[in-house]
Structure formats: C-alpha cells, structure tokens
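Example noted here:
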Amino acid sequence: MSALDTLSVVFDLDGTLVDSEPNYYEAGRRTLVEYGVPDFSWKEHERYVGISTRETIADWRRRYRLSASVDELVAVKNHHYLELARTKTTVFPEMRAFVERLADEGVPMAVASGSSAEAIDLILAGTGLDAHLRTVVSADEVAHGKPAPDVFLEAARRLGADPADCVVVEDAAPGAAAAHAAGMRCIAVPYVAAQADAPEFATAGLLLRGGQPEFTARAAWEWLTGTARRG
C-alpha cells in the first residue's frame, strides 16, 4: 500500500474553494451599519479572513463597543450572508477541477470551515460541490475555531483518517496554523497576497504565494502524488 492509498484531503471553504469573501464583507458591512458602525472597510475585513464568524463578531463587540449579544449579531450577519450566498457565490475553476480529480481517484474529502453549517450546506448545494464533498465540519460544531486544530481533527475523525495522512487546502494564515497544529500537511493558497509572508504559511508543504491565480489542479495533484511517493 502506498501513502496515496491512505490520503485524505480537507478543504477550507471560504476563499479556498469559493470566492465568498466579498459576500462576507458585504454581510458584515450591512450588519455593522445596522448597529451604528457606518465605515467598515475591506481593509478592516481582511484582518478577519480565516477566522470563524463567531470569533470575528466577538472581536467586533470589543472593537466597536457593541451592546448587542454575539448570538444576535451572528444571526443578523448570517441572514445577510445567506441572502448574498444564494445567488453570488463563485467557485474557483481550478479548485473545482482539483476536487473532481480527487473524486475520480477515489480520495476521501471533507470541508472544514469557520462558517455556519447552514451557510456551508447552502454554498455546497448551490455550486454543485456537494456532489463530491459530503463530509462537512463547521467551527460551530467544535470547541475552538482556527487557528486551533479542532475542525481539521474532527474532519479526520469523520473520514476515519489518521491526521498524518491528511492534506489541508487553505487560504488563510489561521487555517495554515490549524493544519500544522493538527499534524497535517498543507497546501496554502493565500487569499490576501500581502499575508503570504505570514509565519503561519511557512509551515505549509506547498505555498503558492500568488494565491488562486497561481493554483492549478494539475500542479496540486503532482505535488500530492510526489509527496506520497517520497513517503
């Protein structure tokens, strides 16, 4: 049995499989406007890329001195996000090709995301990715979101995989840190190019500094199979 026979791949969702960050930004902007914060910028949003919705909002409460509860703010933001996600979520073409290649090769796959389970399911169904990605873990289902390893370890458990046999595909520094903490290899495709030098990405087995424009399904597959042969 080769290492490839035991391989499993765990994908982050937002910014990795799908270009959902513009939707998350707009949902956050609309939410903060409702609570008296009128000037939330894309640059401010970038600091939260890769962090779960609940942890993002907990930080908002401190940063913007909001009196509403985390649960209330999460509900409002999710409402705005789901409205946008139903019609405006785009899959990165090379990521779709990579998922399809892995499916053709019989490689077990999962999604582990900081989004709510409802949002994950909506996006996977709406984009057709649910045909191949049926094992899903939301950060809401575990004790700690990324950069803690909880979502990735739970994904491995549900796949019946050893973490050491798992490869994570991630776009954000907290996710790369979570993969490393879980004892998993990582393909890092930074969504925010300026963050490519973040120390968390230095732990990745394959770092594509150019982000999605640099990612190809073929190169990712060749890296996976090459890594597997080297053991």
In short: The two ends are 11 Å apart (CA to CA). The mean pLDDT is 94.
